[in-house]
Amino acid sequence: MKSLRGILLFFACTAAAGEWEATVENYLHYTTDVSLFSASRRLAHDQDPTLPLIETEFAHRRSDVVYEPEITLYRRLNTRLGQGRFGIIAEGFIFRERSRFTHPLVGIDWTQAIPGGYRILLRYTAVPDLYLGRNRRRPLADAPHAEGENDPGLAPEEVSTHYWSLGLGHDFGERIHARIFGRYGLRRYEAPFEHRDNDFWTVGVHLEMESTENVEMILGYHFERAYADGRHRPELRDDVSYRNHYLTGEFVIAVTPLLTLEIGGHYERNGWTSAIEGDIRRGEYEDTVQGEVALLYRLTDHLEISLELQGIHRKESFEDTGIASYNTSFGLHFLL
Fold first, then answer.
1. In sequence order, what are the beta bridge partners of 303?
2. Would the pLDDT of 158 be above 70?
3. Separation CA 233–CA 239 (nearest Å)
4. Global confidence as pTM
């Protein structure tokens, strides 16, 4: 993680020069399942809710403490079309004991106001070398079935994700903002799971409403389609292509001028589209449900603290029971 610390230090020094503004956030999490932590943290309308498949059989179900530093560096610019904003984000997830799960996230974006009350958003995000846990090599029929972590049929599963987003938003009065968006992305797996490589595209709509001066509501829907290389290799019986429906609702309530309550709920269904005979996911689906509640308290104009609780449950249709995890978080937010 030396390179990530170097990026954070560079951003902080640049912001101090006065040409840029920055927000710095630090979170300390406790999670009951390290294999589900990254998925639960990014299951949000403005993140990457359709994260890679996690095999229930090999989910770690092990707890850990995770440190999450994040810095967003941005600069506002006036163009011929109107006000624009260029931003850079660097984020890390550092696991205390299960260090194999440690990984970064980096991204850049541009928001541009255009005449008529519209805004355009362009964004690129990369999550390199995300460790998902151990998984069984394919084809399953030829794999050994010894027990435990030393099973020779198991191998570490890692994936890198890149996606590009384009959004168009419009203000309908002072209290309603709507946005349509699309994205295209790539997930690339390390051997021996490269047959899970997939390209995906997403379309969606977000609606942000201030029902009163103290309550804001965010609703969203995404549809995503992914095509995996495994659909061309029937002998592996492991085509993870899918159709995904994602629904989200979030409420932001100003309890007092200094205290804010955030409540969110998310649901997604992955409908596996494999047509390969013998593939366990042929004709099946996966449901994911997540809820969260957070309290944010503003200590000063430049410092805010937060407490958050998340719960997530994922279940394949062919399983008797799914897997669940919980995260508790404490955060510090600085505005430089």
1. 300, 334
2. yes
3. 8
4. 0.87
Mean per-residue pLDDT, 267-291:
95
Strand partners, 94: 67
Query: Do residues 68 and 29 touch, judged by C-beta distance below 8 A?
Result: yes
Bridge-based pairing state of the strands 83-95 and 64-78? antiparallel
Residue 45 burial (10 A CB sphere; 0-12, 13-18, 19+): buried
Ranking 79-83, 116-120, 127-131, 255-259 by mean pLDDT, the lowest is 79-83
Annotate the chain with three-state secondary structure.
CHHHHHHHHHHHHHHHCCCCEEEEEEEEEEECCHHHHHHHHCCCCCCCCCCCCCCHHHCCCCCEEEEEEEEEEEEEEECCCCEEEEEEEEEEEEECCCHHHCEEEEEEEEEEEECCCEEEEEEEEEEEEEEEEEEECCCHHHCCCCCCCCCCCEEEEEEEEEEEEEEEEEECCCCEEEEEEEEEEEEEECCCCHHHCEEEEEEEEEEEEEEECCEEEEEEEEEEEEEEHHHHCHHHCCCCCEEEEEEEEEEEEECCCCEEEEEEEEEEEEEECCCCCCCCCCCCEEEEEEEEEEEEEEEECCEEEEEEEEEEEEEECCCCCCEEEEEEEEEEEEEC
In the chain, the percentage of residues whose pLDDT exceeds 90 is: 68
Q: Is the dihedral of CA 114, 210, 203, 292 positive or negative?
A: positive
**Cβ–Cβ < 8 Å for 98, 64:** yes
Q: With a cut of 50, say whether residue 9 has pLDDT above it.
A: no
Structure tokens, 325? 């995890």
Residue with tokens 């942000």: 208
pLDDT tens digits, 252-266: 999 999 999 999 999
